[in-house]
What we know:
Helices cover 44% and strands 22% of the residues.
Amino acid sequence: MTDFSPSSSFDHSDLPTGxxxxxxxxxxxxxxxxxxxxxxxxxxxxxRAVNWAAxxxxxxxxxxxxLIAVAPHFHLAVNSHLIAGLMGGLAGCSAxxxxxIRREQSKLSVGRELLENVFEASSTGRAxxxxxxxxxxxxxxxxxxxxxxxxxxxxxxxxxxxxxFHREQNVxxxxxxxxxxxxxxxxxxxxxxxLKDSLGVxxxxxxxxxxxxxxxxxxxxxxxxxxxxVQIREAIQRxxxxxxxxxxxxxxxxxxxxxxxxxxxxxxxxxxxxxxTPRDMMAGGVRLADVFSxxxxxxxxxxxxxxxxxxxxxxxxxxxxxxxxxxAMIAQTIEIxxxxxxxxxxxxxxxxxxxxxxxxxxxxxxxxxxxFFEESPIGVAxxxxxxxxxxxxxxxxxxxxxxxxxxxxxxLKSFVDGGSVDVHEQLAHASSGDTIPAMMEVKLKxxxxxxxxxxxxxxxxxxxxxxxxxxxxxLILHFLDSSEQKNLEARFAQSQKMQAIGQLAGGVAHDFNxxxxxxxxxxxxxxxxxxxxxSSFSDIMQIKQNANRAAGLVRQLLAFSRQQTLxxxxxxxxxxxxxxxxxxxxxxxxxxxxxxxHGRELGLVxxxxxxxxxxxxxxxxxxRDAMVSxxxxxxxxxxxxLTAPFQREHxxxxxxxxxxxxxxxxxxxxxxxxxxxxxxPFFSTKxxxxxTGLGLSTCYGIIKQTGGxxxxxxxxxxxxxxxxxxxxxxxxxxxxxxxxxxxxxxKLSPDLTGAGIILLVEDEDAVRMFASRALKNKGYTxxxxxxxxxxxxxxxxHPGRIDLVVSDVMMPGMDGPTLMREIKKQRPTxxxxxISGYSEERxxxxxxxxxxxxxxxKPFSLKELAEKVKGVLQx
Length: 875
């Protein structure tokens, strides 16, 4: 008990007599006291019975002895058998009486022991004192409550111990002394002792005393821990106080009137609205009619409307005693007291002024939120704990190509796929409070692929709501559409991949072109000595033909890498397709119908005719392979003018004038999962050995190198359409004149022999050797150089006239264009022919000012070299 510090106490006898707890305690007292009294009374009766039984036995023995002793003196005839019988009877009766007495004593001992066991097992402390205050009985619980004992005190006098404990704990003894006095006067008394333990926990102990009935001056004391009971009582009191405070300070007004309209109750809120107080309103004689700004006198004092009724509700303008007005909604019910028959009202008043302000602000807030929510470019979705979509904005609906009615109430699994990450498991963790990744990559599945044609990729951001809103959502999801970013990444990756493979292919093709140039050139030199009919002629022709086939393969590699040597010409695609139609019909077979639809006034394009024909032939062959059982191949041309950029997949067509070629078949179509890969190099769906995988990638490279664009649309089972956009070209007068001069020069120089001094610069020994012999055979003087630096040295050694420079473009050290810039510093009028396996466009990038450039593509034959040299020298 020393762990407790005093708080307060009060006299339990002051509690109302109707308290349920006190009645229960009093009935317990009444059931315990008589048990003690009966035990004491039975003990007294049993003692008296034992004494009388002993006296009886002793008396009987004395009488019998006396009769035997005096019988001879008085000459009495005493029957010994009678005496013996009398003695035996008395002895039996005495024995029977002693047995009964012992049995009762045994019962008394058992009852006392049982009663003591009950008291000892009770958690309630009990003590019984005699008139002097000395303890007659004290149980263990009593010792527990007052343990350890204050210094100098024992349990011999419980009342003094209780007082000492009060003083030890600095608790006033006034209440207990008053209870002690009442008990000594023969009345019941009790008090409550409030203490706090060392942890600050508050406890309450009930100390009760009452006189023992039938035993004057004896007192029974009872100590019990009633902390839970007091906590409940205090909780009820607090709740009552809270409800009273709530009613008085509720955000709505309450009032009640009698049948005369006099206020019986009015809470502080309503009184404050009227500029008054509840006391002034009820004590000042204010009636219901006084608070209405405009009221018909025909209305009953307690009614709101003239027609009355049990329930009345309406909107009114109220005014207070100070003249303050407000607009309010009043809902009132009228109750009739069944005993008195009097009417009284109960009313609730709602001030509409803040509500209307709140409604206006709410409407504005809702409108602002709706604008942010619905017009946000970021997809927003509210999701319930079960993963069900509760709300979403139009941006999210656009991502999945659906209407709100199609997705609300459905599981997010229907249109969100996290790939390797289980998004739905992550959302379940987020709902339960676990941490989740700040951002996840997800794929939004379109509900109507036929409308959109592709799914969206999005970055998903998840946030947990503080509490479920009215929709029941627990998570808010933000979807940032990253489809365009992914497209750019894919385009960049595709560009890097194509560039890497193109550089590899271009490098291989450049070296291979040098080899092929030498092979074809030396074959031409051999053919000059081995005419038809010679035994070696056919072998040489076989070598040359295979070299030409190899040159075709190299051209494919260069076309794929967009480094092909092009000979662009101004073309009319209508003429090109007409000339190509017979070849196409032979290629596709008789079971496939070919239909050409030519656009009216079709624009011109500037491209390499052979390459354009190769594109059309490759696509026609692919269409033929997709129509095994026959079908229809349609090639359509048209003009197209774009005023704004046109976006498709990973490519964008800029504004301008375009000539469009559409190649459509009715074949099996291309599966969606591979349509994005059809232009990849070495990708083929054909069996091994039936395709190189370079056909469409070559077409793609040719079209891109020409400045065009190509797109594909396909549907499985219905066919495929390739759409090619080529820039429309308008020829200038200078270009028309230059083309005429070149054509005339070619017609006027059938003889390939010539004269002049030519500087030949080539790092590949075989190519340089072939070209030198070829030019010398045609009558030219040739100065050879193996590099650009070597060529400058040769010029110094031959300061005389040099008519032409034939130079390779790509060489170790100084390249061809750099060499020509150095030579022109010394000889500005000298002409040059550049030879290379790369495209002419790459060569033009090395010169400025639109300087005229002569170009010969590798591999070239002896005739092509001789024609080119003579044509330039004649300019």
